[in-house]
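Forwarding these from the shared drive since the link keeps breaking.
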Amino acid sequence: MNQRINSYDLSFIFNSSNGNSYRITDKEDYNKTLLVTADSLTYLFNKNVGIILSWPEQVKNNMYWSHNTIIDNVINLELMFAAYRNSDNPLYTSLAVSHADVTIKNYIRTDSTVYHVLVYDDKTGECIRKCTHQAYADNFLWASGKAWAIYGYTMCYKETGYEKHLKTAKELTAAYLKRLPEDYIRFWDLDDLKIQNTATEAAVIVVSGLWELSELEKNKTEKVYLKNAAEKMLRSLSSSSETENAAFLLHSTRNRSKKGEADIPIIITLRPK
């Protein structure tokens, strides 16, 4: 592992910006930055485990040693696939597929819910701990983590065409949708009904995943069902608020279990003076 790489949070930033900019403009400078970012993720990949490290700093301080990954990391795979398309370097896609497949093997519970954090032995690849950092408890279900998984495996199938990625995306989606209340916006932890802080940030991610999945779905009935679910979430998310606010999204929860932000607005717009 390259010790200079201190964060895995790269696709969120660079694929959304440089990746889309290159897709629209074909300007090579955008692609160069995207490939440098993908290279950074390759330094975080452990071949013994078969996945990309999430928290290098947590390894250094022995909090989540010796090799950890979080479910959010499946979002990075979309960047790796983009880097492969833009370079024809098979390393990017091979690492992405490995990470996706190892995650399927270890992360997903029998009821198609997911853990948040997994810790591996960096020498043998053995999974030695399954836990959470942002859900109510280890065996509970963090809404945003579930959302990352739905979107991530939908995009994996879109890129690979592998049926196991489609099967995973559909099973994860079904487990999420059956837990939704009437307004289709779930609480921060899908299993904790006592502390009812909503997770609008999770709903936004799921909407994107559902729409992509509906476009990939061949069964017409399922296609309509997925699009209808996405539209219901969007209607709830875009409903009017009596409170004037500069944010695009209200009632988000970042880390309720660690007394982090709960019921907060995110993505602030700048207002002219």
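-- next protein --
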Amino acid sequence: MDSMLPMTGTTELLELLSPFVPDDFINRTWPQTWTGGRRRQHSAAQLFRVHLLSLLTPVHSLNLVVRLLPEQSGWRRFARLRNQDQRPDVRMLHEFRARTGVAGLRAVNAHLLEPLVEHYAWRERSVGLIDATDLPAACGGFKKKYRVLLGAWGGAGRADAQNGAEPLVCRLQEAHLAAVAA
């Protein structure tokens, strides 16, 4: 059983995965830019690693990750934060996410997959992975049809039930399919 990964959130797992985070690529792709007076205390790779902590630990809220960073030395070591006082706040993480965007995360993914594709693409038997963004969204789940809200004057009112309305994702996917078919 030596081939199993350590448990989620453990220091052993973070130490095992740390060398695979492409810090140089991330820092080159999103260099520190002018902020209008504020000085950036953290590199793009450090902010990316803090985001990874929300995936690699049982804490899935960035607010809680930021709050627990001073107590978790293994997490700070993974994120390459020097000390417990200099940690990013939620605003910094939000700004990094806005600056990076979905295309940026796909660029990191492509950078990580590049050596695998180069090594295995020429072989007779290859594996193809489905990109989850191309799959139809589950549009009907957890719909709150008749949620009662208290109005500003204390009276009960109804929330917009959205009866018969389709979410934007479904409409865009149908439009995409129609455009591809044409």
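The chain is about 45% helix and 5% strand. Residues 154-165 have pLDDT under 50 and may be disordered.

- D.
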